Amino acid sequence: MTCPRTARLLRSAGPGKPAFRPEGNSSKKDWNPTPWMGGMKAWNFARDSVEWTPHEDLTIIQVRRVAKGCLSYIIGSGDEAVVIDASLDPEIYMDLAQDNRWTIRHVMDTHLHANYVSRSRELAEAAGADYLLYRGAKTEFPFTPLEDQEEITFGNTMVKALHTPGHTPRKPKLFDRRGSRVYRRHPVYRWVGRPDLKADRQQAMRKAEQLYDSLQKLLSLDDGMRVLPANIARSVRIGEPVIFATIGELSGSLDLLGLSKEQFLQEIVSRIPPTPANYRRSAA
């Protein structure tokens, strides 16, 4: 890797190891790295955010956990906001809302998952907001149920829920009023959401069929529709622009989206990787 001499280097280390001593190539080239205080545990929660204003009465802030590739959103209009898939300390979202003079009215998770510990319910309680999940979500706590095609109003706009099961049984996508953005779990940028987790083979095949139908529903949308993901398969580069892809870009770049239903089912089952070692414990 080549770095300009003016670049600032941050140095971290594994558990129990100091990050203060330059080692290897950094000392040979007279670099003076700044230690990342807290090591890898702190890096796990490192974040940045980027703001996008598609039009005058709508602002979207993409909040990124840079090490994990987890993305959440605070969407503001007028003096109100909604938060989608919160994965960081609730104070982070509340501070962003306060900076923009927004009151958080709704907080929602696009589905129950084990990608990370959701902070959405905690945020809703702290902000005095509704906590929304798709109707039928199996939980041991109360929530406000969402129906397919239901509109969630806030400020001068709204988002609409679209039921797209497959990766999980109850999983909505969320569109803004102008229909130009969709906020979805597990982007189809390089892959599609796996249907096998927490399912036997028969259930996985049934979920794969649902997944195919859901993807066809999304592909029927306008090619210019922007898809804003909540997970990406890499780290986030600090300061990079809003991460998104259009429906047209996705349909032209992922071979699975051009297959027939029978071909899709055969292909997706053959590509499924091993179940993560800690998944069953995390999803319990």
Mean pLDDT: 78
Low-confidence stretches: 14-28, 185-190
H/E element order: EHEHEEEEHEHEEEEEEHEEHHH
Multimer state: single chain
The DSSP helix count reads 8
Q: Give the distance, in angstroms, between the N- and C-terminal Cα atoms.
A: 42 Å
Strand line-up across the major sheet: 3-4-5-6-7-8-9
Radius of gyration (Å):
20 Å
| Shape designation | globular
Share in helix? 10-25%
Strand content: 25-35%
- Tell me how many strands there are: 15
User: Sheet bearing the most strands, described?
Assistant: 7 strands, mixed
Question: What structural category arises from helix and sheet content?
Answer: alpha/beta
Helices and strands, with pairings:
Layout lengths: L9 E2 L13 H4 L5 E2 L3 H6 L2 E9 L2 E8 L4 E8 L2 E5 L5 H10 L3 E6 L11 H8 L2 E5 L9 E3 L4 E4 L2 E7 L8 E5 L4 E4 L16 H19 L6 E4 L15 E2 H7 L7 H11 L7 H5 L1
Parallel strand pairs: 1-2, 6-7, 7-8, 8-9, 13-14
Antiparallel strand pairs: 3-4, 4-5, 5-6, 10-11, 11-12, 12-13, 14-15
Helix pairs in contact: 3-4, 5-7
Walkthrough of the structure:
- The chain has 284 residues and is α/β, with parallel strands linked by helices.
- It contains eight helices and 15 strands.
- The chain has helices at residues 25-28, 39-44, 90-99, 120-127, 201-219, 247-253, 261-271, 279-283; strands at residues 10-11, 34-35, 47-55, 58-65, 70-77, 80-84, 103-108, 130-134, 144-146, 151-154, 157-163, 172-176, 181-184, 226-229, 245-246.
- β13, α5 and β14 (226-229) form a beta-alpha-beta unit.
- α3 packs across α4 (120-127) and α5 crosses α7.
- The longest helix has 19 residues, at 201-219.
- The radius of gyration is 20 Å and the shape is globular.
- 32% of the residues are buried.
- Mean pLDDT is 78; it is low at 14-28 and 185-190.
